[in-house]
């Protein structure tokens, strides 16, 4: 048997403005995660390109691409993806460490960031000692610590109960408004998507349509 | 990412898996212990043997013999030969020696059978070996006569309590003038002195020898030529050139054999060096096994940490950072193993040096194979460990660890972040 080529995305074209909060809504298997990975410089597409600030991501070599992920993009995952043996503080510090920021400065910045996501009293806790919502806050703090232009979130509420999920969405929305960062949130949950500036509908690897969201008017 | 932070992260990882890290490190510790143990013991052995050999040979004395060492063709060299050798550049003194066996000594009711009777020019021969031929009793200060004799330590002391004769006494030496049919004759000699335990010079053991004047022997045995020529050099560096010239003078085709202690020692040293390299190489196998252990454990570790590697890559870690992180872990294990293994290896060598040879000393005969060069057999060896060796061993441990860590570390660095993130 030969290799079967699976095309998760089949001709997606989209443009996201600076500071926009975009939700990509679609059922599982629609190619949402793949789209997010491609947008974030994690997964080289077989064809096509991704431009960030006019730079074509996949013309960069692996090292440059890693640098783009480090400095311009922040990821938030469904399963939080924190390093279990590091404290919240050290988890949040990680991107700063990778970016060669001094220990003192990175500790200061990470503490401030944890404060910002409402975990000022949880800095010394390890992920296993935190609730799901708290872990996702740590993950958001980590995604934002290098002050990226773009935050990409893959089902950020997928592993949380409705109330906590709502809080997380609200937190992201608030940060989007306060810091002016671009947010792209992938979800299968319409209630998560509804507060976005714009909602894109993805199905079978294609964007089937879009509509304006509430843009946070309810908040 | 800065080195300090990478090291600190690697250290955290190792601490997290304390038991596993300890076991992996133990492998390196054992490897380095084996290397340092054998190498330092080998070096100690080398030094001890070398010292013994140097005690057994005067480096500035050459012995000229006829033919092969054991062919024993007697009475070969003439007075002219001695004169010619004396004139070679670097030669201080050349003195003849006649060697006779089948002699017996008598003093009253005591008798002794020396291994060998050496007929020499006393004053010249004592100039050749001033440090070795030291008198225990008596001396050669008074002018020697044709019936002067000196006896070796083992003849004077057949047992610890007995002594054969006192200086000034007359003793009888029975010489075998002809073997077939045997013709033996007794001669009276005056004992000038006895020599303290001196061991052997090359292949002659003075402890078992009786000395008489050369002219006396030549007259009694009716010979004019001599068996050997002892040559004292200005310094050992003349060894090769003088030996070569002597051989050339006699045709160079194995007619004579020149015993060059410096060359002999160099040969022995080469053998000892080879032995040490061999031992160290064998011990290195232990370290290679430890390296495989590191590779094994790190491969498992990379698999376990696949997701973590994916996370690091997703948040912007370069492949090189991941590679360095894993290699640093390997290097730390190697370093730790080296640091612990060096003193442990030295301790093992100390223990082995003390006990191993203590046992072997009990089964070694009184006279060691190096022709009685030492009165006591080797009972212990002090291992020798230099700072360079220690540093080299630690470096070797780190090197092997990193080498074996390369494969898993590379594997980790090459992981596709998306696949790694999905890894359960």
Low-pLDDT segments, ≥5 res of chain B: 364-375
Distance between the termini of chain A: 54 Å
Approximate helicity band of chain B: 40-55%
Number of strands of chain B: 14
Give an overview of the whole structure:
The complex is a heterodimer of chains A (219) and B (424). Chain A is of the alpha/beta class and 219 residues long. Chain A has one domain (21-45, 56-212): 3-Layer(aba) Sandwich (Rossmann fold). In chain A, 36% of the residues lie in helices and 17% in strands. Chain A contains 7 helices and 8 strands. Chain A has helices spanning 32-39, 62-71, 88-98, 103-116, 132-144, 162-179, 190-193; strands spanning 21-25, 51-52, 55-56, 73-76, 150-154, 182-187, 198-203, 206-212. Chain A has a 6-stranded mixed sheet, with helices on both faces. Chain A has a two-stranded antiparallel ribbon with strand order 2-3. In chain A, strand 7 (198-203) and strand 8 (206-212) form a beta hairpin. In chain A, helix 3 (88-98) packs parallel to helix 5 (132-144), helix 4 crosses helix 5 (132-144) and helix 5 packs parallel to helix 6 (162-179). With 424 residues, chain B is an alpha+beta fold. Chain B folds into 2 domains: 3-57 and 265-422, no CATH class; 61-234, no CATH class. Chain B has 12 helices and 14 strands. Chain B has helices spanning 3-16, 18-56, 79-86, 122-128, 153-156, 214-221, 239-249, 261-304, 306-314, 319-363, 387-413, 417-422, and strands at 61-66, 91-100, 103-107, 110-112, 116-120, 135-138, 148-151, 170-178, 183-195, 200-201, 204-205, 209-213, 228-233, 256-259. In chain B, the strands form 2 sheets. In chain B, strands 1, 2, 3, 4, 5, 6, 7, 8, 9, 12, 13 and 14 form a 12-stranded mixed sheet that branches. In chain B, strands 10-11 form a two-stranded antiparallel sheet. In chain B, a hairpin with a 2-residue loop joins strand 10 (200-201) and strand 11. In chain B, helix 1 (3-16) crosses helix 10 (319-363) and helix 2 packs across helix 10 (319-363). Chain B is elongated. The two termini of chain B are 27 Å apart. The model of chain B is unreliable at 364-375 (pLDDT under 50). Classes of the chains: A alpha/beta (219), B alpha+beta (424). Chain A binds chain B through residues 37, 40, 42-43, 62-63, 66-71, 73-75, 77, 81-83, 85-86, 94-95, 97-100, 103, 142-143, 146, and chain B through 1-2, 5, 12-13, 16, 307-308, 310-321, 417-418, 421.
């Amino acid at each position: 048997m030969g290799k079967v080529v699976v095309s998760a995305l089949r001709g997606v074209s989209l443009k996201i403005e600076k500071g926009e909060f975009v939700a990509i809504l679609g059922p599982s298997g629609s190619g949402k995660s793949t789209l997010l990975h491609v947008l974030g410089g994690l997964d080289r597409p077989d064809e096509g390109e991704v431009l960030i600030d006019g730079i074509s991501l996949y013309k960069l070599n692996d090292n440059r691409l890693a640098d783009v992920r480090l400095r311009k993009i922040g990821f938030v995952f469904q399963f939080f993806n924190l390093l279990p043996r590091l404290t919240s503080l050290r988890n949040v510090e990680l991107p700063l460490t990778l970016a060669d920021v001094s220990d003192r400065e990175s500790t200061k910045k990470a503490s401030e960031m944890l404060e910002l996501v409402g975990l000022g009293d949880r800095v010394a806790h390890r992920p296993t000692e935190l609730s799901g919502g708290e872990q996702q806050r740590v993950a958001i703090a980590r995604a934002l610590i290098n002050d990226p232009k773009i935050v990409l979130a893959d089902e950020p509420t997928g592993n949380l109960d409705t109330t906590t999920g709502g809080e997380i969405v609200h937190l992201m929305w608030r940060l989007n408004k306060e810091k002016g960062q671009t947010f792209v949130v992938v979800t299968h949950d319409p209630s998560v998507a509804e507060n976005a500036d714009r909602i894109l509908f993805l199905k079978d690897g294609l964007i089937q349509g879009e509509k304006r969201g509430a843009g946070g008017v309810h908040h | 990412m800065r080195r300090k932070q990478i090291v600190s992260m690697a250290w955290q990882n190792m601490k997290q898996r304390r038991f596993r890290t300890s076991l992996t490190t133990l492998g390196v510790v054992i490897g380095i212990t084996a290397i340092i143990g054998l190498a330092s013991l080998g070096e100690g052995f080398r030094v001890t043997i070398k010292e013994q050999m140097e005690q057994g040979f005067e480096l500035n004395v050459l012995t000229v013999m006829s033919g092969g060492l054991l062919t024993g063709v007697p009475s070969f060299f003439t007075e002219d030969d001695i004169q010619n050798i004396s004139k070679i550049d670097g030669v201080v003194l050349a003195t003849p020696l006649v060697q006779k066996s089948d002699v017996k000594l008598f003093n009253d009711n005591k008798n002794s059978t020396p291994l060998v009777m050496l007929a020499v020019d006393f004053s010249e021969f004592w100039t050749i070996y001033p440090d070795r031929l030291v008198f225990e009793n008596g001396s050669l200060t008074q002018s020697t006569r044709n019936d002067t004799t000196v006896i070796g330590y083992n003849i004077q002391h057949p047992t610890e309590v007995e002594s054969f004769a006192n200086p000034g006494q007359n003793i009888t030496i029975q010489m075998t003038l002809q073997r077939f049919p045997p013709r033996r004759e007794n001669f009276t000699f005056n004992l000038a002195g006895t020599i303290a335990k001196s061991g052997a010079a090359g292949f002659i053991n003075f402890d078992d020898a009786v000395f008489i004047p050369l002219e006396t022997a030549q007259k009694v045995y009716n010979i004019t030529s001599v068996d050997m020529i002892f040559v004292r050099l200005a310094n050992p560096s003349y060894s090769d050139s003088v030996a070569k010239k002597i051989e050339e003078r006699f045709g160079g085709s194995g007619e004579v054999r020149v015993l060059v202690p410096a060359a002999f020692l160099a040969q022995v040293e080469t053998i000892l060096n080879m032995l040490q390299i061999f031992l160290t190489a064998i011990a290195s196998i232990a370290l290679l096994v430890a390296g495989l252990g590191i590779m094994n454990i790190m491969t498992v570790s990379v698999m376990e940490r696949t997701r973590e590697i994916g996370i690091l890559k997703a948040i912007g870690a370069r492949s090189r950072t991941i590679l360095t992180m894993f290699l640093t872990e390997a290097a730390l294990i190697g370093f730790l193993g080296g640091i612990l293994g060096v003193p442990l290896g030295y301790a093992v060598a100390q223990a082995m040096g003390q006990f191993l040879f203590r046992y072997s000393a009990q089964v070694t005969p009184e006279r060691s194979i190096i022709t009685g060069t030492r009165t006591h057999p080797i009972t212990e060896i002090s291992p020798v460990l230099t700072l360079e060796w220690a540093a080299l061993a630690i470096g070797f441990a780190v090197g092997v660890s990193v080498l074996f860590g390369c494969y898993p570390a590379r594997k980790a660095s090459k992981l596709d972040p998306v696949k790694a993130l999905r890894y359960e």
